[in-house]
Amino acid sequence: MSPTPKSGRFITLEGGEGVGKSTLARGLADALSGDGCDVVVTREPGGAPGAVAIRALLVQGDAGRWDAMEEALLFAAARRNHLTHTIRPALARGAWVICDRYYDSTRAYQVAAGGLDPVALDALNALIEAPRPDLTFVLDFAPEAGLERSQGRNLGEDRFERKAADFHARVRAEFLAIAAREPQRCVVLDAGQSAADVLKQARTELEARS
Ligand SMILES: Nc1ncnc2c1ncn2[C@@H]1O[C@H](COP(=O)(O)OP(=O)(O)OP(=O)(O)O)[C@@H](O)[C@H]1O
Ligand SMILES: [Mg+2]
After folding, report:
1. What is the reported pLDDT for 31?
2. What is the Cα–Cα distance from 92 to 94, expressed in whole angstroms?
3. Domain-by-domain residue ranges, the chain?
4. What is the mean pLDDT of each run of 10 residues along the chain (210 residues)?
5. Angle at 134 between CA 43 and CA 139, to 5 degrees
6. What fold, for 10-209?
7. Can you say whether the dihedral through the CA atoms of 113, 118, 122, 128 is positive or negative?
8. Of the residues 12, 14, 17, 23, which should be mutated to test ligand 1's pocket, given the most ligand atoms within 8 Å of the CB?
9. Is the CB of 188 under 6 A from ligand 1?
10. Neighbours of 1 (CB within 10 A)
11. What is the phi/psi pair of residue 192, to 5°?
12. How far is the C-alpha of 148 from the C-alpha of 34, rounded, in Å?
């Protein structure tokens, strides 16, 4: 018998705090599952036991407990663990992987807002052989509005949310810059629309590309 055709895709969802990444992940997963696809919804940092343990180090505690390079190293270890145990096996069996945050978040938070040399991030991603997503949705929204949406929801996991307003402004600007540099991979969605409209637009983009 011939092997099952592999039709999986690697989709990442990016954007600042409270823009609706997790909401869109659930909506896309429901839609794709309804179409009969094998779907894995996962997130960074996390998605595998080792990476979940590293997540706690990154998202909890004092804002100043790690500098940007230390964060990038922890993210790289978590990303490698997540790729090995969850993402690569899912893609290999033909599943769709919807990943809530991935390496563009490291570029926005640790490089653009945190001051890490971009060459360091490129080197880390090369070291762990991080695959390039097939498609990335960048949810764009004013940081203050996003922070208001997520207010109080991430109790104990708010280390990045507590960073200053100019940090979040640089994060937003970098996500838009990444999308402008890689228009083939990235689609910017206006996160100020209703969640239903964001999902509709994302599905239209997916259909246009499949
Ligand atoms: N388009 C939307 N319009 C209004 N509210 C929304 C929209 N999308 C999500 N929300 C609501 O905003 C809140 C944050 O959404 P969500 O958790 O999906 O964002 P997130 O980007 O995953 O946030 P975080 O960065 O905290 O993980 C939730 O209460 C969600 O129901
Ligand atoms: Mg979320």
Report:
1. 97
2. 5
3. 10-209
4. 60 97 98 96 98 97 94 98 98 97 98 98 98 98 94 82 94 98 98 98 93
5. 55
6. Rossmann fold (3.40.50)
7. negative
8. 23
9. no
10. 3
11. -80, -10
12. 32
